[in-house]
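Here we describe the complex-level prediction in full. Unlike the single-chain runs in Section 2.1, the two entities below were treated as one system.
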Amino acid sequence: MEPILRTENLTIRFGGHTAVDHVNFTMPEKHLKSIIGPNGAGKTTFFNLISGELKPTAGDVYFKGQSLAQKSAIERTRMGLGRSFQITNVFPNLTVLENVRLAVQSKEKIRYQIFRHYKSYQAITEKAEELLSLVLLDNKRDALTTMLSHGEKRKLEIAMLLALDTEILLLDEPTAGMSLEEVPTILEVIRTIKKQGNKTILLIEHKMDMIIDLSDSIMVLFNGQLLADGTPEDIMQNETVQNAYLGGLYDEHLTEIK
Amino acid sequence: MELIVNLVINGLATGILIFLLAAGLTLIFGLMDVLNFAHGGLFVWGAYAGIFTYMFTESFVIGIVGAIVTGALLGLMTEKLIITPVYGNHIQQILITLGLMLVLQELIKVVFGPNGVAVKTPSYLAGSWEIGDVIIIKYRLFIIIVGFIIFGIFQYMLKMTKVGLIVRAGVQDKEMAQALGIHIKRVFLYVFMVGAALAALSGMLMAPYSGVIYAEMGMEYAILGFIVVVIGGMGSFSGSLLAAILVGLAGSFMAYYVPVLSLAVNMILMAIVLIFRPQGLFAMRKERST
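The structure predicted for the assembly as a whole is:
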């Protein structure tokens, strides 16, 4: 069966630096795969290549067997590739509910009934409220977004991403910058999404316990290259990976530079 | 007492007219980051098209409709032909829209003749009411009422409808609205047309107020429009109303009490706001931290 997402020799160079280096990976449908690797391994760059923020120097991304080379980031979102950012991306001067409503309604074509009160679009509001309760924000629905904590903004962002109803979710460090108390709720949210069983999720994370708990598979990037890809158990036992994380490869790399 | 009331009504009426002009400017700038210096041209075309329709049909209401339609159509053409090629480049926008402003102004002289045209207030809006000592000029009150009704309609559309939500989101962060899959350019075309129609309506309502229309009036009022946008905050609709009223009242009172300062007062207001709150009183744009 054709995997939902696949890369072929995906490569990007910035000057002399190869940030992502001939990465071949496949993503089965309804699967949760985490990407790990030390800082600067090329994880976010890899995401940017998949979502279309960056154009590869060589290689290509395939969504359901279709090449994405000519597709812009917006076109990819419409096709079914939704991504979150490492920095939060919400509209600060709209209420929480309005943010989600906007994302829900953006899927539809604008019908120019410009005078109709939004409350008459019951389905949109209901969908938005449903998503807010999924990310545990229903008590904040009428708050202005700028008043939310960082963690709440991340949750709102996930709700908006879900509202776009894309088959694939690209989550770039959803717990980045969060307080310790907030991390478990994000974990809970991702687990709920996974349990619903209709999304394919690609996750960048640093928190290993969270990754092992959630992932169907883990891929390891190091210096832009795919070091390993397998079940959490395989990865934990993989010697090269252990070296990478224990610093063996770091030292070797440093010597090379010297 | 009579004096104060009259100065207030005068200031409010002027403020409302400037608000109608500035409302389009602020949304166009906030939403699409476009500096439209031709806005005054749309204002003066609205005045001429509306007044000539009014004189021809002898109906002030049809004249208003004529002004609005003219404004919207000119807005449509301006966006498609002039603005679209210069998205993202402020210098080019200033040059080309300033050029368009001059073309629109001169075309007025070609089409309607080079001399000013005297305008009569329609009979049912002419005259005044006397309430005790206070004399209220009907037409000024009419402008104020129309202005607040329009403000109410737009406030409703911005706050309570789907398109309004898109516009408000787009003003805050248009890249992100696009990332959500919203056709922000299409929305912008409509906003541009609506803004142009409001400018034209403003010109039409201004005509009986000032009693005469002339080709250069667009340039004069457009400057006031820009001042109001700066004071109110780019992209803020309510900010524009408050700033316009402030500018209207300041002008009205200064013209009576300190006439020498009446021209400078707007600049002084703008300077004070820029010093203490450079983003304007009610800025809506997201400050990008990254």
